[in-house]
Amino acid sequence: MSLHTADGLSLEAEWAPAADARATAVLCHPHPQYGGTMRSIVVSALFEALPRARIACLRFNFRGVEKSEGTYAEGRDEPLDVVAALDAASSAAAEARIAGPLALIGWSFGADMALRTDDPRIAGWVGIAPPLRFGSDRAYDAVGHDPRPKLLVLAGNDEFRSPQEIEAATSAWASTRTEIVSGASHFFVGRTDQVVTLARDFVNGF
Predict the structure, then answer these.
(1) CA distance 94 to 97
(2) What is the pLDDT of residues 35-52, one digit of tens each?
(3) pLDDT over 70 for what percent of the chain?
(4) Which of 69, 141, 155, 197 is disulfide-compatible with 9, CB 3.0–4.6 A?
């Protein structure tokens, strides 16, 4: 399927339906300039597992990645891509008669883009290893201070920004829970099952 952004780009996307779905999730992938795509390890694990837990999923490629039009915009325009994904997921959910909540889930760069997207359709956010470095510190204020629930899944041995730094940076956020995956690198190799469980349980708790 294709998504269409407000600035006129067509983005590559995939939709995974779920039998008797009770919720929908949009998945945002890691950094486009470092090999991140919608098929990256954590996003793929979620895309495969969540539909089995009755959570339909949409994943997409940010602008300039694989078959998506446009070029990497250093995080400036990529929030438009997230909104386009929310539009498409909302339409697909309505067509499938999924009346449940919509979650926005991102990993790494994708987590930063998700946590900058304040949209009334979102029931809650999952930020997986967000570096919180794409955009000014104030770029995350709207979501950070929003009363809707947020889950931050942090890697115990993150190579890019320690969980302690992220916890300090988000200490004033509202309705935010932090979970640290012990021994995990930023890429969660060998520990994607823990990430899936945390994300699944969070969405099922809406």
Answers:
(1) 5
(2) 999 999 999 999 999 999
(3) 100
(4) 69
pLDDT tens string 81-100: 999 999 999 999 999 999 99
Amino acid at the residue 157: N
Query: Which pTM was predicted?
Result: 0.98
Q: Which fold has domain 2-204?
A: Rossmann fold (3.40.50)
3-state SS assignment for residue 122:
strand
CB 82 within 8 A of CB 26: yes
Kindly report each contact of residues 181-186 with a partner whose C-beta sits within 8 Å and lies 24 or more positions away, as own/partner.
Answer: 181/153, 181/154, 181/155, 181/156, 182/156, 183/156, 183/157, 184/155, 184/156, 184/157, 184/158, 185/155, 185/157, 185/158, 185/159, 186/108, 186/129, 186/155, 186/158, 186/159, 186/160
- Please work out, in degrees rounded to the nearest 5, the angle formed at the alpha carbon of residue 97 by the alpha carbons of 91 and 98: 85
Region of residue 10 (phi > 0: left; psi between -120 and 50: alpha; otherwise: beta): beta
Task: Tell me the two tokens of residue 92.
Answer: 């697909």
d(CA 172, CA 199): 22
Report the amino acid identity of residue 69.
Answer: E
Those residues with Cβ within 8 angstroms of residue 146's Cβ, 6 or more apart along the chain or in another chain: 118, 174, 175
CB distance 56 to 16 below 8 Å: yes
